[in-house]
From TrEMBL:
The lineage of its organism: Bacteria, Bacillati, Cyanobacteriota, Cyanophyceae, Coleofasciculales. Residues 79-124 form the SpoVT-AbrB domain. One of its GO terms (cellular component) is protein-DNA complex. One of its GO terms (molecular function) is transcription cis-regulatory region binding. The keyword Signal does not apply. Keywords: DNA-binding. Coiled coil: none annotated. This is SpoVT-AbrB domain-containing protein.
Amino acid sequence: MAKKKKMDPLEGEALILKVKELGNLSKEEKARACGYFTVTKNGVERVNMMKFLNALIDAEGIELDSKANGNGRGGRSASYRISVQSNGNLLIGSAYTKQMGLQPGDEFEITLGRKHIHLKQLDALEETAEAS
């Protein structure tokens, strides 16, 4: 077997896509192909399955630690990733608005960058202008 060149382990969406691409391989082969291995001083390759599986769990957005969100119910935690929906909309979930302490009716000014969206809360801007 040819020695593989050590690469940085894949994470996030890149890890998920690579695992899907590798289809029928064993989980050890998938872990190795995604960069989750080390080479010992003696040149022996060791697959780090625990790091691979933990990275895969994180990439899928699965929360294993029990962090109650205050109301006693479970739920999805913020992954800080969203996708454009089939209708072209971007939906920012309640996990983010709760974390920011936003309330229904809060308004924002949207500024578009090349590959980013910046939101400025209007209430904060108006209060600053009135205080001057």
